[in-house]
Design brief:
five-stranded mixed β-sheet; about 325 residues; 2 domains; alpha/beta; single chain
């Protein structure tokens, strides 16, 4: 056996050299895209529009599904994905923890698409009534910021409640079983709680800041030749968003089939979600995101203050 391995070590270089050079040269380059199952990018993946547009440039696309923004950004940190999206808080956490990301675009705000719900017969009538209660939300997600803002309005902090950090599927189960008293979440989970669980909405994001999505890319991707794909990716997203707005009912029906969620839930969700509109990163948007970062630093939710503008893309993005 030892002799066999010695022979293998001796001839391995020759075997590698024997591989057809053209086959290696013709291998497609890969763009790794992270998306959330409930998000807009699911539509883009299903249509395969991005694959068709990138193929002439010699690129293939690999898709990676995540339950929310924080695990998606963990994957970006490890180099598993090149491009992704989330609500406002996840990239703040990521920046504070040194994830090599760059903000490249944003969307319109959708404050009505986040809700704080309680069981229909719950004695909780106001946010102030959450004192000492168990509130479920996904740590580092948009619902984390939502909960922080609602508590501050009511004169409370996270120290006054019992935070229960759960991803939406687990939070829904906990809500149904009575293991938590309230649940802060985004659409379509919010709409599903209202229509399927008969949950009572205590508050939405109306009147609060935030509730937009960001698209971001890995720094190494933007510093590589693959950066030529970024304008194509954003153009496909912009065009897909226009198609969604032209047929919200059809989009809801399509998503319902893909997600296994009743069409009525998706129709309500799509009607109050504005994540389909792709927008550039203006100074006002960056300032708004800086406000999110400052809030989390003040509350001690992130380990250190950050400067959002340090990781904002400054290159030309055609069409935005």
């Amino acid at each position: 056996m030892r002799t066999f391995f010695k022979c293998l070590q001796r001839f391995a270089p020759m075997l590698m050299c024997a591989l057809p050079i053209q086959a290696v040269a013709d291998a497609p380059k890969i763009v790794q895209i992270g998306y959330q199952k409930s998000g807009f990018l699911l539509l883009v993946r299903s249509e395969r529009t991005l694959e068709k547009r990138l193929e002439p440039l010699g690129y293939a696309v690999e898709w990676h599904e995540f339950t929310s923004g924080p695990p998606l950004l963990e994957a970006m940190n490890s180099g598993a994905i090149d491009f992704g999206h989330s609500g406002q808080p996840p990239p703040v956490f990521a920046q504070a923890n040194g994830v090599p990301l760059v903000y490249v675009a944003t969307t319109e705000s959708s404050p009505d698409s986040s809700g704080l719900v309680v069981p229909q017969d719950s004695p909780i009538q106001t946010v102030a009534d959450l004192k000492g209660k168990r509130l479920a939300f996904a740590r580092g997600s948009s619902s984390h910021l939502f909960a922080a803002q609602l508590l501050a309005q009511a004169g409370l902090t996270f120290a006054n409640i019992k935070p229960v950090y759960l991803q939406p599927p687990e939070a829904r189960a906990a809500f149904q079983s009575g293991a938590v008293d309230a649940w802060a979440v985004w659409d379509p989970y919010f709409s599903a709680a209202e229509l399927q669980l008969n949950a009572r909405t205590l508050a939405t994001g109306k009147g609060l800041t935030g509730f937009r999505e960001f698209y971001f890319a890995r720094k190494a991707y933007l510093e590589s030749p693959a950066a030529e794909t970024l304008p194509v990716v954003l153009a496909v997203l912009r065009e897909a968003g226009q198609q969604v707005q032209a047929d919200l009912k059809g989009t809801a029906s399509f998503l319902a089939e893909k997600l296994g969620i009743p069409a009525a839930v998706l129709e309500r969700s799509e009607a109050r979600t504005h994540y389909h509109f792709l927008l550039p990163l203006t100074p006002a948007v960056v300032a708004e995101q800086q406000g999110v970062a400052d809030t989390f630093a003040r509350l001690g939710i992130i380990p250190k203050p950050i400067r959002v503008s340090d990781d904002v893309y400054n290159g030309p993005v055609p069409g935005l």
